[in-house]
């Protein structure tokens, strides 16, 4: 039957997911929404027929007609919601980051391991972007030989008030952490962060841009330019350098116009636009897997590993040095590819 989904958190991503589930996804229906702000919850619920508004995640999960949970609240609220969903055996799509630090991510990992079955897909949506998927297929096919380096660019127009240098890692670079692990099929083993003199367009106290370097198990090196107040657009690019050639995605050459002696195109202004298709495919894949009784996509292990790398990166940022990443052994639950 149709999957009844409770959406927890109706901020920017949560509200977009409510709209997505309502308009673009087949096989699911939003039956409940939750927000600590009752007016915001009511406003989101009013958009969907038969959708109830709640302020308490546990009450929403206990409500009739709720078969699965989409967590889109701020990161610090994720752990409690995840543990509540585990207690009820409800499948979850959890927006990134899984949790804000490795200790809490570890508690979630241990809880799911004790449960003995995977209930969570983590919202690393780049894995569902068609360009990323083509790059991954090309690397897996081996035509470029072994991947030696990735050059990544991650730019945002501007940051909201309160955005800190640590958030550039935990909220933004976390995507390159997951993309690196996924594209190369290897864990990250060390992180270094370089901080050029900040742009005059950056808010006081924010290190922007930064250059983040990862080393991987197989000896690949990855550089990430993170520039979150670039002012001109939202850009995510990745070039893989292999032994026999290179491949590059994210140039957004969908449409170029040549007129009046110039050529050019548009640059997206935000991630909701740039990754719209990826979000659609991500949520549809989740709904399909859950309706088949399974789980798919990035796991709690992926969310945990990303949290450990983020912590190392924040330390590297503060010390200016190279910080090794130490991961425990991957539990058997996460060894096999999910159904
Ligand atoms: C935001 O939270 C995201 O997840 C976006 O994908 C990322 O590009 C942006 O920098 C983050 O703030």
Automatic annotation (TrEMBL):
Domain Gfo/Idh/MocA-like oxidoreductase C-terminal as annotated: residue spans: 136-325
Keywords carried by this UniProt record: NAD, Oxidoreductase
The EC number(s) this enzyme carries: 1.1.1.18
Keyword Cell membrane set for record: no
Gene3D superfamilies according to UniProt: Dihydrodipicolinate Reductase, domain 2 (3.30.360.10), NAD(P)-binding Rossmann-like Domain (3.40.50.720)
Reaction(s) catalysed by this chain's protein: myo-inositol + NAD(+) = scyllo-inosose + NADH + H(+)
SUPFAM superfamilies: Glyceraldehyde-3-phosphate dehydrogenase-like, C-terminal domain, NAD(P)-binding Rossmann-fold domains
Enzyme class, spelled out: oxidoreductase
Gfo/Idh/MocA-like oxidoreductase N-terminal domain residues: 4-124
Record InterPro entries: Gfo-Idh-MocA_inositol_DH, Gfo/Idh/MocA-like_OxRdtase_C, Gfo/Idh/MocA-like_OxRdtase_N, MI/DCI_dehydrogenase, NAD(P)-bd_dom_sf
Family to which this protein belongs: Belongs to the Gfo/Idh/MocA family.
Assembly information from the UniProt record: Homotetramer.
Protein task: Involved in the oxidation of myo-inositol (MI) to 2-keto-myo-inositol (2KMI or 2-inosose).
Name of protein: Inositol 2-dehydrogenase
Organism: Streptomyces abikoensis
Source species taxonomy: Bacteria, Bacillati, Actinomycetota, Actinomycetes, Kitasatosporales
Name of the gene this protein is made from: iolG
């Amino acid at each position: 039957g149709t999957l009844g989904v409770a959406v927890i958190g109706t901020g920017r991503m949560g509200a977009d997911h409510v709209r997505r589930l309502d308009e673009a996804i087949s096989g699911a229906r939003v039956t409940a929404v939750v927000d600590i702000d009752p007016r915001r919850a009511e406003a989101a619920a009013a958009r969907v027929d038969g959708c109830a508004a709640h302020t308490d995640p546990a009450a929403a999960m206990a409500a009739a007609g709720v078969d699965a949970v989409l967590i889109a609240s701020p990161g610090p609220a994720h752990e409690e919601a995840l543990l509540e969903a585990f207690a009820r055996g409800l499948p979850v799509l959890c927006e990134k980051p899984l949790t804000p630090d490795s200790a809490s991510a570890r508690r979630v990992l241990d809880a799911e391991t004790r449960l003995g079955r995977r209930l969570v897909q983590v919202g690393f949506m780049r894995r569902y972007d068609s360009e990323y998927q083509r790059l991954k297929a090309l690397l897996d096919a081996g035509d470029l030989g072994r991947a030696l380096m990735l050059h990544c660019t991650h730019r945002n127009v501007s940051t909201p008030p309160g955005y800190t240098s640590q958030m550039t890692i935990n909220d933004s670079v976390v995507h390159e952490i997951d993309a690196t692990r996924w594209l190369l099929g290897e864990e990250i083993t060390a992180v270094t962060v370089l901080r050029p003199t900040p742009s005059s367009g950056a808010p006081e106290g924010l290190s922007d841009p930064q250059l983040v370097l990862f080393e991987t198990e197989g000896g690949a090196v990855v550089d990430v330019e993170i520039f979150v107040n670039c002012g001109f657009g939202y850009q995510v690019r990745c070039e893989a350098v292999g032994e026999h050639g290179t491949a590059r995605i994210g140039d957004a050459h969908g449409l170029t116009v040549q007129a009046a002696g110039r050529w050019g195109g548009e640059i997206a202004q935000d991630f909701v636009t740039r990754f719209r298709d990826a979000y659609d495919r991500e949520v549809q894949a989740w709904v399909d897997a859950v309706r088949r009784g399974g789980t798919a996509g990035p796991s709690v292990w992926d969310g945990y590993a990303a949290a450990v790398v983020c912590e190392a990166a924040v330390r590297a940022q503060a010390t200016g040095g190279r910080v090794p990443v130490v991961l425990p052994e991957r539990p058997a639950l996460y060894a096999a590819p999910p159904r």
